[in-house]
């Protein structure tokens, strides 16, 4: 029997993140959004100490979020990082074709996701930001005092708090300070329904975390990757550590793979349903992925793989059309190819050109070029794929590929 009852999960929809919420409130009340722009830069110096010049509220926040969780197991973290090193491109395909779509089926939390995507005006940014966070968390030493994972988690936590603040205080004059008029008006146009709970509440954050944790494990099982039980446990453990730094309550962090599955399913049965926003965002993500494949008959691969990885019921809720007989035949072949490459490890990615192009195109062109362009515009830190991972996934070999023919 699951330890997460419906009443318990419902209560978590009314809970935010007091530490981050107090920090953001202080920043808005003093300097408006200008104070929040520091999130895109360095919060700590090379020794892990708060950067000079940060406000007192920010220094307090950084000091309060520096301690690792009591349950942290360095060996399990290292094991999870090794899995990313071996299966990174596959994990990324799972993110696009299962993790993000599973987020979009949550009709109670999807209005916030839709709003942020609408304000960004670009699905690319959403994909890149989630990918960057995934890589940062699972990078070597990601949760050290100066680690990429810790830095990203702290910034995402503050971003969540900023979204809560802006939606719930949309009429306050402080919202306009430093905020582009288009964004301010977009926030003010939201008529937040309180029966949805708080924006970015504890239940929604716990569900999103398991779209990265449990959904990854589930899909790797479905693809017959052959992970050992302790490797699956390591993945869940890594995302639990991330959840701690994101401000997710510890009673929403599963202690095993079985609990991760139970938590995900307990929340999904409560929040899943059709929504115009969910269908729109799913279509945008899969269209984005299809654009990275030049051969016409392979452009259906992201949509076909998504239906396999999330199942027919979820795919129907997300508005994906049924597969034709030809597409079902292709689905079997593509899934078999994915499974084969995964078992051979990603040095053999070149055996399947369409998969090679999808993984390389999304990582190299989107992750590098698009995010770097965004960084120039709004001060965000560009996406950087660690050299060790780029080499192991053979992404470096693809970077010079033209739009029609794969490299090699």
Can you offer a commentary on this structure?
- 62% of the residues lie in helices and 0% in strands.
- It is an all-alpha fold and 408 residues long.
- The protein starts with 5 loop residues before the first helix and ends in a 16-residue tail after the last helix.
- Residues 362-383 and 387-408 have low confidence and may be disordered.
What ranges have pLDDT less than 50 throughout 5 or more consecutive residues?
362-383, 387-408
Reported for the largest beta sheet, the result is: none
Approximately how much helix is present in the residues? 55-70%
Number of helices, where a helix is a run of at least 4 consecutive DSSP H or I residues: 18
Arithmetic mean pLDDT: 79
Radius of gyration: 21 Å
Principal-axis shape equals: globular
Succession of helices and strands: HHHHHHHHHHHHHHHHHH
Number of separate strands = 0
Note the quaternary state here: single chain
Sheet/helix structural class? mainly alpha
β content, as a range?
under 5%
Query: What distance lies between the first and last C-alpha atoms, to the nearest angstrom?
Result: 52 Å
